[in-house]
Amino acid sequence: MNTTIGFIGLGIMGKPMSKNLRKAGYALVVCGHVNKGPVEELAAAGARIADTPRQVAAQSDIVITMLPNSPQVEQVVLGKNGVIEGARPGLVLVDMSSIAPLASRKLAAALAARGVEMLDAPVSGGEPRAIDGTLSVMAGGKKEVFDRCYPVLKAMASSVVLIGAVGAGNVAKLANQIIVALNLAAISEALVLAAKAGVEPQLVFQAIRGGMAGGALLEAKAPLMLDRKFDPGFRLKLHIKDLANALETAHDIGAPLPLTASVMEMLQALKVDGLGEADHSVLVRYYEKMSKIEVKR
Amino acid sequence: MNTTIGFIGLGIMGKPMSKNLRKAGYALVVCGHVNKGPVEELAAAGARIADTPRQVAAQSDIVITMLPNSPQVEQVVLGKNGVIEGARPGLVLVDMSSIAPLASRKLAAALAARGVEMLDAPVSGGEPRAIDGTLSVMAGGKKEVFDRCYPVLKAMASSVVLIGAVGAGNVAKLANQIIVALNLAAISEALVLAAKAGVEPQLVFQAIRGGMAGGALLEAKAPLMLDRKFDPGFRLKLHIKDLANALETAHDIGAPLPLTASVMEMLQALKVDGLGEADHSVLVRYYEKMSKIEVKR
User: Fold this and answer.
1) CB < 8 Å to B245, chain A
2) Structural domains of chain B, count
């Protein structure tokens, strides 16, 4: 296999994702500025090490970025010694970070001016599915660019779907994060009401899980709330970032999101309380504090 | 089988539920004040007809009520010619209506003073599952009363769960209705944002349904929104009734429900717009109107 993949952003998600690319037989070039451990780990797995994003790009056919938010992606791609400086025409940047759709479109426009193609391709599934290579990828970009990158994405994911033009992947991701955030609040309102009414929240969970209230989030998070286990999982501060991107996007395009805005403020209050690193299911604490009761088995 | 069941409230739900009791071989006594059609239909299926709830109670071992809300239940049970007037000690009232938990407790106390036992046993599942006899019953009451009524409830339901003391069934039902209402709003915010951002809501639905945003409600209601099919289903005005009971209960016991209150106002706005008889998934219209766009395939 001749395709060489550059991978920038070897964090909790990026490290296992890049390892799955190696397992699938791709040549890999990595660089890391934040900490050296993951870079050395990848080097031991056969990846080449480059000093800068520019050098990564110069050696790659496809560059993947997996970074916290748009400022980091913009710095790595468009900044000094960035991907754009090392890119030759025909390179594809696949940004798998979860960022604002408008930031994706801006990046794509800057890259297009240099003959570089781009997909936005955020994922859902979290660390366990990054390790298993069973992430869900929601992609935006040109069909022919998507088709070219599809086998590479499939080495990290079980589901890889093209949603629309560049930015559409991140729109789908924001839609997902809105539903998850509001559903966490819904579960919290329901279970705290039950507890305050003197009814076992555990039995309410059992009674409703098979009906219209049932779903993946209730199954995953209600037990964490009932067991008081708020280790991440998905960090509250990352959900704040996603809702900030959703609200910014919504305000730009004119789509009021009143409940998303309310849940955002609840998450902010919990962050002020020092819970930014906890699992986002800790949202139940906001309601518990208001109602002066705990949801537990 | 010697048990005679009285059934009061032969509406969309009560009629098929009572028919399933006949199918299971129970002797049935019915009465109907609102319209005569269902009463005659049940008589043709072998039910005796009584003139008043009092006469129903006098001939029954267990009386089931399936009525719109607590005022109707209170009238039928405690009012003139009500169940309580015809009841002998040992009768059990099983109220399967969805009413406020505090109203259930008040009823149970009034009945207990006359030696009559009570369960609150609201259901989820809607008309199709009432017809199939596969409802979910969430019950509150004494264990021995629940055990006595269990086979009767099982003739109408696939899942019959005792949640706690009288009122607990309706607490579980309210928890269910809160999650469903807020999740409908969540789906609406997500799909309207996608549409306004120029992305196909249908593709976003496909991309997210397998992940943490996935569940029974998304599967059932997103297609209705995308197809613009707002025939009930579950009528918006009934969801308003449930949220009113949830908020009243929450205010009584001290459990603030800020998002439930917000969604309640959205549903009220749609009712003012003449949509009270539409399926509750018409909530998406509230968002569509704000954002001046439609979610459709």
Assistant:
1) none
2) 2
Range of the domain at A191: 171-291
pLDDT in tens, A254-267: 999 999 999 999 99
Domain end call among B133, B150, B165: B165
Residues A13 and A160 in one domain: yes
A297 part of a folded domain: no
With CA atoms as reference, the chain B residue closest to A189 would be: B257
Q: Do B216 and A216 touch (CB under 8 A)?
A: no
Residue A25's contacts (CB-CB under 8 Å, 6 or more residues apart) are A1
**Using one digit for the tens of pLDDT, what is the confidence trace for A168-191?**
999 999 999 999 999 999 999 999
Instruction: Tell me if B204 and A260 make a contact (CB, 8 A cut-off).
Output: no
**A145 lies in the same domain as A26:** yes
Q: Which of A19, A173, A221, A241 is catalytic?
A: A173
Quick check: is B173 catalytic? yes
Q: How many helices (H) and strands (E) does chain A have?
A: 14, 9
Scanning every residue of chain B, which has its alpha carbon at the shortest distance from the alpha carbon of A179?
A: B186
Give the C-alpha separation, A182 to B189, whole Å.
10
What distance in Å separates residue A254's CA from the closest CA in chain B?
A: 6
Total Cβ atoms within 10 A of residue B88 = 12
- Give A153 to chain B, closest Cα distance, Å: 15
Distance from the A164 Cα atom to the nearest Cα atom in chain B, whole angstroms: 6
Cis, bond preceding A233 (omega within 30 deg of 0): yes
Residues A101-128 have a mean pLDDT of 96
- pLDDT tens by residue, chain B, 297 residues: 589 999 999 999 999 999 999 999 999 999 976 678 999 999 999 999 999 999 999 999 999 999 999 999 999 999 999 999 999 999 999 999 999 999 999 999 999 999 999 999 999 988 999 999 999 999 999 999 999 999 999 999 999 999 999 999 999 999 999 999 999 999 999 999 999 999 999 999 999 999 999 999 999 999 999 999 999 989 999 999 999 999 999 999 999 999 999 999 999 999 999 999 999 999 999 999 999 999 988
> Least CB-CB distance to A180: which of B176, B213, B291?
B213
Q: Clarify whether residues B205 and B254 are in a common domain.
A: yes
Burial class (CB in 10 A: 0-12, 13-18, 19+), A66: buried
The interface predicted TM-score of the complex, written ipTM, equals: 0.95
Are A140 and A215 part of one and the same domain? Answer: no
Nearest Cα to Cα of residue A287 among B256, B172, B250, B252:
B256
Determine how β-strand A62-65 pairs with β-strand A4-8: parallel
Cβ-defined contact of B204 to A171 (cutoff 8 Å): yes
Contact A73, A99 (CB under 8 A): yes
Q: Indicate the residue of A165, A175, A217 with minimum beta-carbon distance to B215.
A: A217
Is A213 in contact with B179 (Cβ distance < 8 A)? Answer: yes
- The reply to whether A104 and A198 lie within a common domain is no
Same domain, A230 and A146: no
- Residue B12 inside a domain? The answer is yes
Residues in chain B closer than 8 A to A178 (CB atoms): 186, 189-190, 193
Residues A51 and A142 reside in one and the same domain = yes
Q: Is A213 close to B249, i.e. CB distance below 8 A? A: no
CATH of the domain at A117: 3.40.50.720
Same domain membership, residue A135 and residue A19? yes
Position B189 in a domain: yes
